[in-house]
Fold this protein.
Amino acid sequence: MRKNSRIVLALDETDEKKALRVVDEVGDLVDAIKINWPLVLSSGPEMITELARRSPVICDFKVADIPNTVRLIAEQAFRRGASGLIVHAFTGSDSLKAAVQAADGKDIFVVTEMSHPGGQEFTASLAERFAAMAVESGARGVIAPATRPERIARIRQAVGDLLILSPGVGAQGGSASAAIANGADHVIVGRAIYGAEQPREAAESIAREIASLRGC
Amino acid sequence: MRKNSRIVLALDETDEKKALRVVDEVGDLVDAIKINWPLVLSSGPEMITELARRSPVICDFKVADIPNTVRLIAEQAFRRGASGLIVHAFTGSDSLKAAVQAADGKDIFVVTEMSHPGGQEFTASLAERFAAMAVESGARGVIAPATRPERIARIRQAVGDLLILSPGVGAQGGSASAAIANGADHVIVGRAIYGAEQPREAAESIAREIASLRGC
């Protein structure tokens, strides 16, 4: 995964045309595009391939199934052109290993903690175990919320040099610079870019904020 | 959801033609067809609509995301013709409620325990809490493994008159009659039907096993 602006665009649009328009506008500014099931259900799986022509695509499918189904989902996502796939760890080590094996060198990212209130009910207290499982399984990185930068710092200790991608920047209240300062490699930004009147300017502004932090 | 043969066909084929052939053969014998993401990724979301013309479709998407994404996935699955949707509870009560609200009277089923070894790491010990969350959220039913019929009996106590659907019958070693005797409303059968040389005979044989148990 490239690491230039350190921004991953969360393309949470379900309108295919709008989605492509945003990507045409900011695709070169972001390190990857993250898409989720709603876009696949509205536009079809060909959308993965279409977007992958413009930018690396991370399929945020939050896969949480038995090993054989995980394998099939991973195989198909990568066959369609994805560079990365986001999976859950709570379905166990065997399911996680099935994802890493099926990725065959491509990137698996493991959810540690989630940013919504319900994320506190079960996943928050297990976040560091999930992070350790990511390391053991050979995953490429983890997902940890930018809305809780102190948690990113803890997760960083648990994952060593694995990548940390942090959603929740912008509309959900997280700060890109706080996330990066606490150890995130990439921030995941959605509405603050695709919902902006000038998506390119919005992306550039966040990229500048991150670059200034690094003293570039 | 109809309740005749008490069989739900797990259509774990990723080959669209084979999938449709099996459904044409046994669609009238089963109470519903359960499909998963691999078929959507290989054939496209139109497959939901195509299958729903033949039999009620349960989308086994094991949704595990923040409430807004859960809502979008549910809306799109039902818009495509699904009658039911399978979701996880471990992402919290708010995500579960978002699914039930988006279903708008259609069926949400909540995973309690999973049948693979990794299911013992986190979900098994939480199964009864997940079952209670299914009741509180207004879900239509739960998923509990036929490979552990004694667990079905415990889950039955927790869910009252909610439906229990039990996967793992046949190829994975679970018995249809043991699952039903312990409180399952439907058994979910995959390879034992679609992988059989005579899928219709295989389905009829399981239906007879279940019917004989009920003294019909």
